[in-house]
Amino acid sequence: MEATKIKLILLITVLLFSCKEEEKVFKTDKKDYDRYLTSTPVKTTSKYFQLWDSKIKQDSLQTMGLANVAGEYNRFFQGTGDIKYLKMAERSLEKALEAAALGKAGYMRALARNYISQHRFREALELARSARKQGSGANATQALLFDVHMELGNYEEAHAYLDSIQNMSDFGYLIRLAKWNDHKGDLDTAIRFMEKAYDRAKMSNNRDLLLWSTTNLADFYGHAGRIENSYKLYLKALEIDPQNAYAKKGIAWIVYSHERNGEEALRIMDSIIQKHQSPEYDLLKAEIAEFMGNEVLKLQALDNFHKKVGNVDYGEMYNAHNVDFLIAMDVTEKALKLAKREVGNRPTPETYGLLAYSYLKKGQKEKALLLVKTHIDGKTYEPSTLSQAAEVYKANGENKKVQELKQELTGALYELGPVKEHQILSL
Fold first, then answer.
1. Model's pTM, two decimal places?
2. Is the pLDDT of residue 53 over 60?
3. In which domain, by residue range, is 348 found?
């Protein structure tokens, strides 16, 4: 009788615990974000822009006017994804730098950041070094050099520049410290520093800093499995900027990867694509369509991506995405050639991962394995790169390494998404 009572108590406890666990499963509510999906497109003019633009037309040597117009062009690019605005900002900054008698370092840094946006990292590095020789704004230049070296995979140099700007009360230092810890695979520490940066941004009353730190902290929370925290911050970002495509994409990812609601995720993505021209949104739409088993929609989205990146103004910006696209289309020779080009532009573990994966898909598994062991193993914590490495190890029969990576990757299934999940679980 006592044994029966104990079993009954245990059963009730398990059931109550299960109910509580079910209650904890977070769900989004379209009423939270629906109004942002119908927000009007970003205006690509302003009184501020027209004022400075008119001054430039009167006197093409007005460097301050050129710099301000470049800032507005950059804002238009962020809002619309239209590459022409980034290129117009570049031309304005080049003209300002050419005309400037004083303050050249500031224009060099601004132009270098434009080049970073275009994935012209080596040119950005040259400009950053030139700015350092100018002497003014030393801390800003050191921060820029950290950013460029991180993009180029020069991690020791990057860390040295990070140490040179150490200041725990400075927003710029905190966000770079967060990025450094994320690179090292210490996500908890990265979040702690990004939270400090977010708090500083709230106190600064600077809309751009607040928006940037809000979306980036939302990303970090997502990577850590804190989905509800991530969602709430994306909503906060939309309160700041109702047209922010990046925050909308973040919500779409939660709906797709966490809730497995492909139809709703597609609805959000379509609202973004109507107003924002960035090609990567078409790639995400293609992935969601694949998850839903809609092959026609997937091919349409991939075709739209391919058409957009055909614009020569994009230059090197979408090389990595293009490698994935070409592999998906089984155009392995072109994928391999482009992956080699990308490694030449920025030799990071992530680009070597693309190259190794391209060799694997070309049937050269031994070359792929050598790259993984030399340039990836122990050098990155990026889930997508580790999943490529796992496939290379599997093809070469190194099952112990496969199982080690599989264990690590099962903790990153939300970040990788439902389509990748099947590949990971079948390793």
1. 0.90
2. no
3. 316-427
